[in-house]
Amino acid sequence: MWGLGSGGSRGPRRALSTEQIVDAAVTVAEQGGLVAVSMARVAQELGFTTMSLYRYVDSKDTLIELMQDRVIGLPPELPADANWRTALEIWARAEYRTIQRHPFWLDIPISGPPRGPNNMAWLETGLAALDDSPFPPQMKLLLLLNLSLFVISQARFARDATDSDDFAPVLRRVLDPAQFPALSAVLAEGSLDDDNPPGGTESGWAEGLFEFGLGRLLDGYAALSNTP
C-alpha cells in the first residue's frame, strides 16, 4: 500500500503490478458490487491466472483494503483563508461526494482505522483544517473521526433509502392520532412529505438530511470551541 517491501529485480520480469490489480478489482466492484470481487474474477478481468495475482497481493482481504484506499483518492485542497468550520464543511462534502461516486465502498467492512496513504492524506488535511481552532490535538482527532462517521452514515442512507413516495400518505391512513399524537402532528403539517425535505433544500430528503445534519454537527463543534 505504501510501496514498501517490493520484490527485487531478480527472476522473470513481472507482467503485472499491484496498481493494475487494484484498478481491475475496482472495475469489477463498480460493475457488480463488492460481492462480485474475487481473486478469480479480478484475474479474469486482467487475463491472468488467479495464482499469478498472489505474487502481488497475498489475499482478498488485502486487496479490498487496497481498493478502499484507492477509491477514496486524495482529499480536496482547502482554501488557505478558510476558517476551521468552513474548511471542515468543504472536507465533509468532498468525502460525501467521493463515496457517492463509488457506492460499493460502503460495503467494505470497517475492521479498524484506515492505514493507506490516501486515507492518511484525508486525515492530515482534516486535522490541518483545525489548525486555527482552540481544540487540543486529541480532541481534533476525535472531532474529525466523528465527522467522517457522520458522512459515511449519511452516504449509506442516501444509497440505501428506497423510494418513499407513499411513506407519508400510508402513515396518514394507518396512524391513530390518539395513539401517535406527536407523529400525527408532524404528518399533518407535511414534514415527512418528499417535496418537503429537511432544511428547506430542493435536492430531496437524502441531500437535505445530510446538509441539515452537517450544519447542526458543526454548530455543536462551534459551541464547544466557544466561537461563533
TrEMBL record:
GO terms for biological process: negative regulation of DNA-templated transcription. It comes from Nocardia stercoris. GO terms for molecular function: DNA-binding transcription factor activity; transcription cis-regulatory region binding. The keyword Transcription applies. Pfam families: TetR_C_1 (PF02909), TetR_N (PF00440). The lineage of its organism: Bacteria, Bacillati, Actinomycetota, Actinomycetes, Mycobacteriales. Keywords: DNA-binding, Transcription, Transcription regulation. InterPro entries: Homeodomain-like_sf (IPR009057), HTH-type_TetR-like_transc_reg (IPR050109), HTH_TetR (IPR001647), Repressor_TetR_C (IPR004111), Tet_transcr_reg_TetR-rel_C_sf (IPR036271). The keyword Transcription regulation applies. Residues 38-57 bind DNA. This is TetR/AcrR family transcriptional regulator. Residues 15-75 form the HTH tetR-type domain. Signal peptide: none annotated. Gene3D superfamilies: Homeodomain-like (1.10.10.60), Tetracycline Repressor, domain 2 (1.10.357.10).
